[in-house]
Amino acid sequence: MGPKISVCMATYNGEKYITEQLNSILTQLSENDEIIVSDDSSTDGTVKILQEFAANDPRIKLFLYQTFRDPIQNFQNALTKASGDFIYLSDQDDIWLEKKVETVNQFLQTFDLVLHDSIVTDENLNVTEPSFFKVFGSKKGILKNVIKSSYYGSCMAFRRKVLDNALPFPKTKEIGQDLWLGLVAELTGKVTLIEKPFIYYRRHQNTFTLRGLGGTKRNIFQIIKGRLVMFLELTKFCWKKFFST
Q1: What is the C-alpha to C-alpha distance for residues 67 and 62, in angstroms, rounded to an integer?
Q2: Which of 35, 44, 79, 198 is most exposed, with minimal Cβ within 10 Å?
Q3: Cβ neighbours, 10 Å, residue 38
Q4: Are 62 and 48 in contact (CB under 8 A)?
């Protein structure tokens, strides 16, 4: 039996696309794997859809009626429930492409965190950018990713030791859960990028906006504040991890 996989998903009002996403994931998992879903106060039909899936597939484990009102805390809640050896993050509205799990698992035999490319689409899956990596200039490197993050959770998977090192997440909204996991992996292990897309990254009117893909730019003071918070949290992490006794 191979490593157990935990797919962690944080949901909020995702009824429109979540069925398609769950189906694309389940076909790639073994009977020993799991999907952990934490729902944060959905007001649409998301919870009903999740309950229907879970009733027919014991691999789906639900943690409903959370009241975080915060995607970072919602993802953290899902991650703390994961029992797998390899952890995958998933958004609620993308689609996993064939052989994502098979390919990424092979890389996780050697690396602690894997980041793969994605195909950017509109809500109807019409391709708008064939390579997210090329649009964003995705690369490894702590300084590079503090300045402009390449770590997007929908394209990430990592070994359990990365999660153990990263939890609990810093209590700030300046560092997303995916960026924090990527930075922790770079500080404590080996990271690699796969120059091949393994999801359709669906962009629609409810998608969290991203700079470089039509998102709103923050002003210079907000940017400086965010960088300072990141450096402070990284310094605290390194002191605790490498220097404190």
Answers
A1: 14
A2: 44
A3: 25
A4: no
